[in-house]
């Protein structure tokens, strides 16, 4: 009878240990994923340049939306994108959807 009680206690302790360890592993994994996501968002924010695009008779002019400094020009959208990429290789540009609609770039991004 004592041996059955001992076996029962060991099995119950093993199950509690297994469940507790599993929960700690899950909690740690969530923390690591959140940390990685935060780092990725910070890196993406460093690479993203917010822009405002103006359309004139001479083509498209792109300005840094933070300080309205001129950054690129193109007679067509493709030329503007090529000039932005040439001037800022590896960078990404974000333009407000209202600004895109205003200049005729519906449902697109630059």
Which descriptors would you attach to this protein?
3 helices, alpha+beta, about 110 residues
General description of the model:
The protein is an alpha+beta fold and 110 residues long. It has a domain at 47-103. Helix content is 58%, strand content 22%. It has helices at 2-47, 77-87, 97-103; strands at 48-56, 59-64, 70-74, 92-95. The chain has a four-stranded mixed sheet. Strand 2 (59-64) and strand 3 form a beta hairpin. It is rod-shaped, with a radius of gyration of 28 Å.
Q: Which word captures the global form? A: rod-shaped
Approximate helicity band: 55-70%
- Distance separating the two termini: 76 Å
Stretches with pLDDT under 50, minimum 5 residues: none
Estimate the mean pLDDT confidence.
89
Strand content: 15-25%
Structural class: alpha+beta
Tally of helical segments: 3
Major β-sheet annotation? 4 strands, mixed
Number of strands: 4
Radius of gyration: 28 Å
Strand order in space, largest sheet: 3-2-1-4
Helix-strand sequence: HEEEHEH
How are the SSEs ordered, and which strands pair?
Blueprint: H1 2-47, E1 48-56, E2 59-64, E3 70-74, H2 77-87, E4 92-95, H3 97-103
Parallel strand pairs: 1-4
Antiparallel strand pairs: 1-2, 2-3
Structure described in brief:
With 110 residues, this protein is α+β, with helices and mostly antiparallel strands.
